[in-house]
């Protein structure tokens, strides 16, 4: 019993350590600027205000930034998972020549550090006339996610029993029908997990948005948060409020898919 | 447990509704976005890094005022200063770059002129005959063309709280000996005399290097050193650090761990005595403390050296690839007027001083004093990175931070600094 209590106390303390920075941000987000300036970021709050949320929302235009983020994230997730599942279906269920090579080639792209591709991508996007558009950003995210998603889905689809597909073929279903009516529904757990993961990855991306987008009004929420920082002086309370707002969509997705999130981590771990 | 799950669901349902509501107008606006990125003819794109709330609002007012005068309409595009800094080379080299940019005068502008990326604005300067000689020099490229239009500057000084100085019984020092005496007195009250904030903002230490160098060796030596024509292992540079060591015990030991914004809070709360900083720090001060803030000029060390002050100058330059050259020059000419600069100064934090000598600055004792100090200076420098390059700044940050930690290793630190600087100058 004592050991159990000790365990809980210790684990409680450790969890608190994890949560503390988040709590700190939330506390700062309710403090006024003069309070932060006079007492420092680290002090206990001497004020309480909601105005930080108002200025993050209105002055910093976080509303528009969130819409931009969703306009990028949702199509990018749907498109990359859709394409990846088709590719994985073909590679996993049919004996296409060189399919191993194709898969490895797709995965190889993910092994490159994205930083070395920044300049080529920014130049290429400009060349084809899509610089400073959300479409460019979606395309970049789809391109980068595709290799990894295909690899994961391939592993999952390969392990579906052969007999199901044979039964469907006997019933007269073509490859397209088998994909949409048999394989895709069976892949749902993997798709949900990947969907949740890719949503957070794309939503939280900063690097690509500032590489292909130049107009302030088209920036997604992560660079918009950066924009709350001034050249020298930053209103940390407003930034904290903005961060809390920006975290809401990812937290929502996490709550909805939390089961799959954990499951997603184990995809491909055990055959 | 079930109750919790139900709560989670309702929360999500609410969010879903919110999300659906936001998507409706979102779709309507998104269809317009492709293709509208570049400025159409008759419209000028102004790329601004002034992203803090007040400065952004001031820029919006400035642009609105210009657009009312007729001519090309200007479209302001504000991006985070950090993004702007890293992306500026990309903007300038892209096929369809923004037209006008906020930036800094001096070698940081010249580095782009050397790559032939900037518009020659010599004709704009025809209307700027009343600008000081120093401003002209700062706006001229190494090829002898005017490439920059300065609009405002600010100053650096040793800031303190008047009430605290009165409480401690000290008066602002003028000479180095008086300064050391003030430090001793403040320390005897149990307060660290000199505040500094180097965590995240290590460049703040460069102000000390700049000022000690221009006070001991003079501005011409300082400029040459930063331009790569000197050597950091020079005994004259070492003399700077010998002087610095005299006051090193008076620095706030906590200053290494927090950024300058926190150091400002420490100064205002009376936890440190003085702070060598630029006027932009006032933006991070609570409004009620502002009346109590004053500054004194960095103490004179060698009266034989002509007095120089740091006055970083801000303004605009334009891309070489602008479509509407006349419209761009017209806008820049307007930005150089006293009227335009007053609009900006009145609506921003108020510590910036118009670059046009006819422009009125904010009428506060602090700004009057700062303006008088700069106008009385024999020489003007800007700041370490602005007088050298953004590439040289990290070498200074590394050297100065190390010096503050281990002042006795100065010879090795200076040798390392010279080696690092050599690489930057050769690149």
Automatic annotation (TrEMBL), chain A:
Q: Which InterPro entries match?
A: MetI-like (IPR000515), MetI-like_sf (IPR035906)
Q: Which UniProt keywords apply?
A: Cell membrane, Membrane, Transmembrane, Transmembrane helix, Transport
Q: Which organism is it from?
A: Kribbella sindirgiensis
Can you cite a GO biological process for this protein?
transmembrane transport
Family assignment from sequence similarity:
Belongs to the binding-protein-dependent transport system permease family.
Annotated membrane topology is:
Multi-pass membrane protein
| Bilayer-spanning residue ranges | 7-30, 65-90, 102-122, 128-152, 190-213, 233-255
Checking Pfam families in the record gives: BPD_transp_1
Primary site of residence: membrane
Protein's cellular compartments:
Cell membrane
Gene Ontology cellular component list: plasma membrane
Q: Tell me the classification of the organism that encodes this protein.
A: Bacteria, Bacillati, Actinomycetota, Actinomycetes, Propionibacteriales
What superkingdom heads the lineage? Answer: Bacteria
Q: Where is the ABC transmembrane type-1 domain?
A: 66-257
Q: What is the name listed in the Swiss-Prot or TrEMBL entry for this protein?
A: Carbohydrate ABC transporter permease
Automatic annotation (TrEMBL), chain B:
- Which residue windows are transmembrane per the record? none
Q: Which InterPro entries match?
A: Bact_solute-bd_prot1, SBP, TAT_signal
Record carries keyword Transport: yes
UniProt keyword Transport present: yes
Q: Which UniProt keywords apply?
A: Transport
A Pfam family it matches? SBP_bac_1
- What family does this chain come from, according to its entry? Belongs to the bacterial solute-binding protein 1 family.
- What name is this protein filed under? Extracellular solute-binding protein
Supply the source organism's classification.
Answer: Bacteria, Bacillati, Actinomycetota, Actinomycetes, Propionibacteriales
């Amino acid at each position: 019993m004592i050991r159990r209590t000790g365990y809980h106390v210790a684990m409680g303390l450790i969890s608190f350590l994890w949560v503390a920075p988040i709590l700190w941000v939330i506390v700062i987000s309710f403090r006024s600027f003069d309070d932060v300036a006079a007492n420092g970021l680290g002090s206990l709050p001497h004020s309480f205000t909601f105005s930080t949320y108002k200025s993050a929302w209105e002055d910093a235009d976080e509303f528009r930034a969130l819409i931009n983020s969703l306009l990028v994230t949702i199509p990018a997730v749907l498109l990359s998972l859709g394409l990846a599942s088709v590719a994985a279906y073909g590679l996993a269920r049919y004996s296409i020549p060189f399919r191993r090579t194709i898969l490895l080639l797709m995965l190889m792209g993910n092994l490159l550090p994205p930083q070395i591709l920044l300049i080529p991508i920014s130049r290429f996007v400009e060349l084809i006339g899509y610089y400073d558009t959300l479409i460019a950003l979606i395309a970049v995210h789809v391109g980068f996610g595709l290799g990894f998603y295909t690899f994961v889905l391939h592993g999952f689809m390969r392990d579906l029993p052969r007999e199901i597909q044979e039964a469907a073929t006997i019933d007269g279903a073509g490859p397209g029908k088998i994909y949409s009516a048999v394989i895709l529904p069976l892949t749902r757990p993997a798709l949900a997990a990947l969907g949740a993961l890719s949503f957070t990855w794309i939503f939280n991306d900063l690097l690509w948005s500032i590489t292909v987008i130049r107009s302030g009004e088209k920036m997604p929420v992560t660079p918009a948060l950066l924009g709350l920082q001034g050249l020298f002086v930053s209103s940390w309370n407003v930034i904290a409020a903005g961060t809390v707002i920006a975290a809401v969509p990812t937290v929502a997705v996490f709550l909805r898919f939390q089961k799959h999130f954990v499951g997603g981590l184990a995809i491909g771990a055990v055959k | 447990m079930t109750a919790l799950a139900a709560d989670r669901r309702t929360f999500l349902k609410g969010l879903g509704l919110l999300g659906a509501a936001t998507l409706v107008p979102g779709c309507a606006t998104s269809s317009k976005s492709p293709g509208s990125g570049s400025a159409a003819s008759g419209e000028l794109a102004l790329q601004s890094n002034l992203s803090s709330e007040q400065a952004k609002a001031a820029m919006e007012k400035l642009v609105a005022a210009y657009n009312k005068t007729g001519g090309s309409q200007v479209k302001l595009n504000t991006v985070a200063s950090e993004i702007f800094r890293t992306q500026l080379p990309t903007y300038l080299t892209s096929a369809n770059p923004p037209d006008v940019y906020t930036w800094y005068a001096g070698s940081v502008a010249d580095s782009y002129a050397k790559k032939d990326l900037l518009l020659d604005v010599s004709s704009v300067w025809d209307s700027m005959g009343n600008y000081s000689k120093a401003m002209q020099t700062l706006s001229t490229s190494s090829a002898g063309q005017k490439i920059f239009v300065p609009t405002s500057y600010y100053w650096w000084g040793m800031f303190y709280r008047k009430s605290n100085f009165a409480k401690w019984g000290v008066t602002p020092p003028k000479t180095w000996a008086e300064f050391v005496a003030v430090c001793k007195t403040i320390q005897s009250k149990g307060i660290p005399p000199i505040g500094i904030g180097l965590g995240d903002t290590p460049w703040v230490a460069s102000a000390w290097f700049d000022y000690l160098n221009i006070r001991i060796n003079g501005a011409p030596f300082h400029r040459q050193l930063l331009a790569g024509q000197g050597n950091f292992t020079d005994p004259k540079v070492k003399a700077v650090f010998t002087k610095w060591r005299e006051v090193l015990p008076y620095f706030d030991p906590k200053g290494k761990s927090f950024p300058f914004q926190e150091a400002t809070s420490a100064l205002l709360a009376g936890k440190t005595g003085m702070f060598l900083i630029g006027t932009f720090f006032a933006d991070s001060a609570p409004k009620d403390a502002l009346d109590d803030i004053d500054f004194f000029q960095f103490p004179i060390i060698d009266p034989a050296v002509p007095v120089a002050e740091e006055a970083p100058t801000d303004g605009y330059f334009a891309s070489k690839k602008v479509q509407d050259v006349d419209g761009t020059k017209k806008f820049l000419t307007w930005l150089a007027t006293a009227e335009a600069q007053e609009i900006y100064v009145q609506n921003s934090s108020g510590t910036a001083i118009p670059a046009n000598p006819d422009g009125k600055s904010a009428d506060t004792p602090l700004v009057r004093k700062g303006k008088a100090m700069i106008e009385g200076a024999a020489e003007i420098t800007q700041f370490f990175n602005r007088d050298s390059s953004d590439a040289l700044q990290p070498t200074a940050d590394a050297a100065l931070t190390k010096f503050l930690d281990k002042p006795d290793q100065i010879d090795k630190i200076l040798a390392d600094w010279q080696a690092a600087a050599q690489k930057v100058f050769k690149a």
